[in-house]
Amino acid sequence: MLPELLQGTDAGGFLIIQDSASYSGRHLLKSFINAALNREEAVHVLGFEVSEEELKDGLKGSPVQRLHFHNAYSDPLGWTDQPAFTVHQFRLEELTRLVKQTSHPKPATLVIDSLSWILRHLSPPAVCKTLQQLRKGGSVRAIIGLLHADMHQRGTVGSVCHLATSVITVAPGMKGDGAVAKITKRSKSGKVVLDEVIFSIKDDLTVVVQSKPSQLGPKQIDPEEQETDPTANLTFNLRLSNTEREAKEKLALPFVFSKEKKIALLHSSPGSGRILYEPDANDDYDQEDPDDDLDV
Amino acid sequence: MFTELNSILNTTPDSFTQGEFVLLSDRQSDASFLIHHFLSLYLRARCRVWFVGLVQSFNHYSAISQRLGVSLTQAKEKGQLVFLEGLKESLSVLIPEDTDPGSQAMDFLRDPAVGLKSLYEFVRSSATSSAVGKHEEAEEKWGPPVLLVDDLSVLLSLGVSVGAVLDFSHYCRATVCSQLQGNMVMLSRCDGGEEEDDGDDEGSERLLKGLTHQCSLTLHVQGLPTGYCRDIHGQVEVCWRRRQGDGHHTQKKLFQYKVHDKGASFFAPGTSSAVL
Question: In CA terms, which of A17, A195, B72, B245 is 20 to 30 Å from B157?
Answer without folding.
Answer: B72
